[in-house]
Design goal:
Strand order of the largest sheet: 7-6-10-11-12-13
Distance between the termini: 9 Å
Order of helices and strands: EHEHEHEHEHHHEHEEEHEHEHEHEH
Number of domains: 2
Number of helices: 13
Number of strands: 13
Structural class: alpha/beta
């Protein structure tokens, strides 16, 4: 059986599939050619990340496609319910990249607090001629210890982020649609394991009291932003936003206006409304630290994703073969 990893797969995942007897295709097929390719090559499993979409037209047009796999957490780019209704197996790897996304958020908090994203840009250009000017410009950073982190969405990634933040000495508030409390586990080398219980906080209090707000929510069914004009107006003018969840979770136009008006101190974005062509004003704004949707893109996470997808494919297809 053939597996098309249209957005790539780790070497370990590819090796595991080949060892089980699958033919693995890693050539990128353009979205417009995908239906014809799947049918022509008799592809049994299609693996995607965020670049490839699997909608009703593809599901209907590819009757021999048995499994659709999403490497990562969200499955916004797949018509999941419809695919399952049509007898397709749909799987993802929600836990594999949690630590990677949590770590990029921590990195962004440090970058915002100490202006690292900006100084890394301007020191190579102007560091010799304007060393004293830049030293003064970037010399008013803040520490993370003692600050309050508000996490909106306390799933696997939110919990991983909470453990890092607690380890840094931050106070953690969270808001989530389901859980009223959550146990955060910390492992400290040389000291063992520690569990911290956090109670749910109402969203308005979180917004008003947080020094950093990090979003970890799925795409909203109503299409509205989690943080829009009204929410931004309630934040501290010294506070920062980090969005590594979904483009549109923060109203981008409202964010630009809030930054220009000094209503908040800055933001860090890894996801955008119009990927892969985000609003250029966001990328060039002096108070925004931007990265190109790389939250889950670590060697370790990709390895876990690949091997987990391989296990899921073997579990569902080899049994039925």
């Amino acid at each position: 059986m053939k597996v098309l990893a249209n957005d790539g797969i780790s070497p370990s995942g590819e090796a595991a599939l080949k060892e089980a007897g699958f033919t693995v295709i890693t050539d990128k097929v353009e979205q417009s050619d995908l239906i014809d390719y799947i049918n022509k090559e008799d592809v049994a499993a299609l693996l995607v990340r965020s670049a490839t979409t699997v909608r009703k037209d593809l599901i209907d047009a590819c009757p021999n496609l048995k499994l659709i796999g999403r490497g990562g957490v969200g499955m916004d780019n797949i018509d999941v319910a419809y695919a399952r209704e049509k007898g397709k197996v749909v799987v993802n790897t929600p836990a594999a990249s949690s630590l990677s996304v949590a770590e990029i958020v921590v990195g962004k908090m440090f970058s915002l607090a100490r202006f690292l994203y900006d100084s890394h840009l301007y020191m190579p250009q102007n560091g010799v001629a304007d060393f004293k000017v830049l030293k003064k410009k970037y010399g008013k950073g803040t520490e993370l210890r003692g600050k309050t982190l508000g996490i909106i969405g306390m799933g696997r990634i939110g919990q991983a982020l909470a453990s890092y933040a607690l380890g840094l000495g931050m106070k953690v508030l969270y808001n989530d649609r389901s859980s009223n409390s959550v146990d955060i586990k910390l492992h400290i080398h040389g000291a063992g394991d520690l569990t911290v219980t956090l109670d749910k906080c109402d969203k308005e209090t979180l917004i008003k009291e947080s020094d950093f707000i990090s979003l970890h929510v799925p795409k909203q069914e109503n299409g509205e932003a989690v943080l829009g004009t009204a929410e931004l107006a309630k934040m501290k003018n010294t506070a920062f936003i980090i969005n590594s969840a979904r483009g549109g979770s923060v109203d981008e136009e409202a964010l630009l206006k809030a930054l220009d008006a000094g209503e908040i101190a800055g933001a860090a974005l890894d996801v955008y409304e119009n990927e892969p062509t985000p609003n250029e004003a966001l990328l060039k704004h002096p108070k925004i630290a931007a990265t190109p949707h790389i939250g889950a893109a670590t060697v370790e996470a990709q390895d876990r994703i690949g091997t987990e997808l391989a296990d899921l494919i073997k579990e569902h297809l080899l049994v039925k073969a």
